[in-house]
Structures are given as structure tokens and as C-alpha cells.
UniProtKB/TrEMBL annotation:
The lineage of its organism: Eukaryota, Metazoa, Chordata, Craniata, Vertebrata. The keyword Magnesium does not apply. Pfam families: L6_membrane. It is a multi-pass membrane protein. The keyword Repeat does not apply. Belongs to the L6 tetraspanin family. InterPro entries: L6_membrane. The chain crosses the membrane at residues 12-37, 49-72, 92-117. Keywords: Membrane, Transmembrane, Transmembrane helix. Its main location: membrane. It is found in: Membrane. GO terms for cellular component: membrane. This is Transmembrane 4 L6 family member 4.
Length: 193
């Protein structure tokens, strides 16, 4: 059985990060359009939507590791000060740095999603008032509280499902980038590239 080299593993991880990044961005974009409801004032959207966790964290900062990992095999392993192994190690070390950027981006999206899920959505509660009617995730245990949001219709499941999707995607991205960092660290330290 052929052992998977760090370069092959890196390309596999890089290829997996791209569709996850696209899904994270889509989830963030959909949060701007709560169902079929048209919000007249953008200030009535939840604050966490404007932090762009899916766009910035899951997509923009994930471009660096995905491109770096996909191009790892394509780039030439030139010698570094006359030692080919050193050049390969330097190249793999650079992918560790880019995977670290991915971990930071995914962590950002993860934190934004956790805060948004715990806080709940901003919604119209009557008396010309838009606010956050839920506290400390209490609406997650008691579905009857969802009726306090009069508009947009179904805003609670909409926000909950999209922020949960973003949470899952960012968790997977953190895991994949971490796997690459650990595997590459051992490759640089103990093996020949």
C-alpha cells in the first residue's frame, strides 16, 4: 500500500477547502435576505451578519491555504543553498504559514457564528421596535419564544440554520488546516520531504 506523501495530502486538503469556502460565503450572503421578507432598513439586520464571518473568515482568509496547498506539487522544488531537502522543507513550511492563516479565518467565522446563535436574531417585536428579544440562547431550549419575533416571518429558523451551517463549515475548515499543520510539521521535522 502506497503511503500518502505530505504533498498529496496537502492537495487533497486544498481541494476540499474550496467548496467549503463557497458554501460559507453563500450562507453569509443568504443572511442578508431573511426568507422572502424585504427589510427596508439594513440596520434591522443582526449585527453578526455585518461581521462577514462567512465571507471574510470562511472565504477570503481561506484562499491562501487552499491555493498554497493546491500548488504545492506544481511548484518546482528548487535547491536552497545547494540542499534540495532544505528547499522542500522551506516550501512545506510556507504552506504551514498559509494554513495558519486559514485557521485564523475559520476561527473568526466560528466565533461570529457562536455569538450569533447565542444572541438570536434581531427582529420586529411590535410597537415599531426592532430588537434582540432573546437572551443567552434561551430561545434554543424554548421554541415558544420564537413567536416574539413578528417579522421577518421565520427569521429565527432562518438565522439559526444559516449560522449553524457557517459554524459547521468553519469547524471543518479549522480541522483540515490543523491536520495539514500537524502532518507537515512532522514531515519537516522527522522525514525527508
Amino acid at each position: 500500500m502506497r503511503r500518502m506523501r505530505p504533498v498529496d495530502c496537502a492537495q487533497c486538503l486544498g481541494g476540499t477547502l474550496i467548496p467549503l469556502a463557497a458554501l460559507g460565503t453563500l450562507a453569509n450572503i443568504l443572511l442578508f435576505f431573511p426568507g422572502a421578507y424585504q427589510i427596508d432598513n439594513n440596520l434591522n439586520l443582526s449585527e453578526e451578519v455585518w461581521y462577514f464571518g462567512g465571507i471574510l473568515g470562511c472565504e477570503v482568509l481561506m484562499i491562501f491555504p487552499s491555493v498554497s496547498l493546491l500548488n504545492l506539487k506544481k511548484s518546482d522544488c528548487c535547491e536552497f543553498h545547494g540542499q534540495e531537502d532544505c528547499g522542500k522543507r522551506l516550501k512545506i513550511f510556507s504552506t504551514i504559514i498559509s494554513a495558519g492563516t486559514g485557521i485564523i479565518g475559520a476561527s473568526y467565522a466560528f466565533v461570529i457564528s457562536v455569538v450569533a446563535i447565542n444572541r438570536g436574531p434581531k427582529c420586529f417585536v411590535g410597537n415599531n421596535t426592532w430588537k434582540y428579544p432573546f437572551h443567552n440562547g434561551n430561545y434554543l431550549k424554548d421554541r415558544d419564544l420564537w413567536s416574539s419575533c413578528l417579522e421577518p416571518i421565520n427569521i429565527v429558523p432562518w438565522n439559526l440554520s444559516l449560522f449553524s451551517t457557517q459554524l459547521i463549515i468553519s469547524s471543518i475548515q479549522m480541522l483540515l488546516c490543523s491536520i495539514h499543520v500537524v502532518k507537515s510539521f512532522f514531515a519537516i521535522t522527522w522525514e525527508k520531504c
